[in-house]
Amino acid sequence: MNDAISRTEKYQKTRRAFVKTCLATATMVAANPTRLALAEPVRRYSRALLKDEKGNPLSSKFMVENEAFVFHYPYVTTPCFLLNLGYALEPGQVLETSADGMYTWQGGAGPAKSIVAFSAICAHKLSYPTRTLSFLNYRPEKIRFVGSDELEEERSQLIYCCSERSAYDPARGAEVIGGPANQPLAAVELEYDMEKDQYYALGTRGGELYDLFFEKFGFRLALDHKIDDVKARVEGQTTVYPHSTYSKHSVSC
Predict the structure, then answer these.
(1) Which end of the chain has fewer CB atoms within 10 angstroms, the N or the C?
(2) Domains, the chain, ordered by start
(3) pLDDT by residue (tens digit) across 176-214?
């Protein structure tokens, strides 16, 4: 019963946020109609089937609610988070990058529209999950953080970076809700094949930081992934790992 109430509250909260965003977007567009035409479309990369560690296509049963998963896309060295938030997530969230680019988030995918994916590269100082250590983590439990209004808040189901304390809300397109990050995590566009119960990554929306990421960590990425070309694109498929086993240690703060 408590779980049902909790999910209802989350859904109502998401709906309120969605309506608020629509009103804010309408006001913004009315003030400057040309910005609507500048909204960024999805950047298309390879259509990559998500597979588990055994090489089987990832099914919805694999996606345990509130557990974080890691896969690489659109490059073989760029990590992403895959999450099942457990309730339907509405499309239409309008977000903005640090370069003043607008884009619309697709919302949730899958049978319950609860599956989301984002770049796991923090928009502040590019912290990311490695095989050894992860400062950037999905936190399903309630945590305390300083919000964008400089007031302390307590929330659950956040992506939180313990490196510089940036907080992102995955239910709203990984929007920044606290800390120094200046734009949302880039969203990974997902396609769900209902007949086969399979998931594909198609592209990204939002502010990509891949060039900076390669420049800063290229040598380390080559060593960690045992490859020469850290900018090699994912082609056809990509493997999904539970974050709990992908990174040996996840820093909680």
Answers:
(1) N
(2) 39-245 (2.102.10.10)
(3) 999 999 999 999 999 999 999 999 999 999 999 999 999
